[in-house]
Amino acid sequence: MTWFLALLALLLCAVAAFAAWWVRRRYVAVTVRGESMLPTLADHDRVLIRRGRRGLRRNDIVVVACPDSMTSWRQRPPVSGDLAATEWFIKRAVALAGDPFGAGPVPAGHLAVVGDGVHSDDSRSHGPCPVDQVLGVVVRVLSRAAPVATADEDVHPHSYGG
User: Fold this and answer.
1) DSSP secondary-structure letter at 75?
2) Are 30 and 49 in contact (CB under 8 A)?
């Protein structure tokens, strides 16, 4: 009977390890840097990304490779799953292949991405983004950044309501 319990424990550990591997391969948490997605996402918000572009729709928030300053997204190899391999943008997918954007339709195999904020480095300056530059789609906000007091606000660190 003890060998059966040991085997069952081993099997449960293997299932748990496989589940952890699968979740980590499929999802990743990232921290937003910058303010191009304000007011939707703020600097230091944490979001959960579903890797890949399957089911990508207009208005989804996506993580894409940062374009090169000289060549935009042209001549970039397809993104890998390695988060440290490149720098990333987080933007809104506003147009998919065939949708109007700028001077004409978005080409096949591309999407147009823009930031929600007024100042954003995005498809308006770099053109449509190849879909092979998409790391994944935001599925939910995990945590919001704590509001930061500005010099104009009357904040007293030792005064509490109550």
Assistant:
1) T
2) yes
69: tokens are 């300053």
For residue 126, the tally of other CB atoms under 10 A from its CB is 19
Q: What are phi and psi of 19, to 5 degrees?
A: -60, -45
Q: Strands 104-105 and 110-114: what pairing? A: unpaired
Q: φ and ψ at 14, to 5 degrees? A: -65, -40
Of residues 35, 81, 88, 93, the one with CA closest to residue 66? 88
Place of tokens 């928030």: 61
* Antiparallel, parallel or unpaired: β 61-65 and 104-105: unpaired
**In this structure, what token pair is assigned to residue 45?**
């918000």
Per residue of the chain (162 residues), give pLDDT as tens: 688 777 777 777 666 666 666 556 689 999 999 999 999 999 999 999 999 988 899 999 999 999 988 888 888 888 887 777 788 999 999 999 999 998 899 999 999 999 998 888 999 999 999 999 999 999 999 989 876 554 444 333 333 344
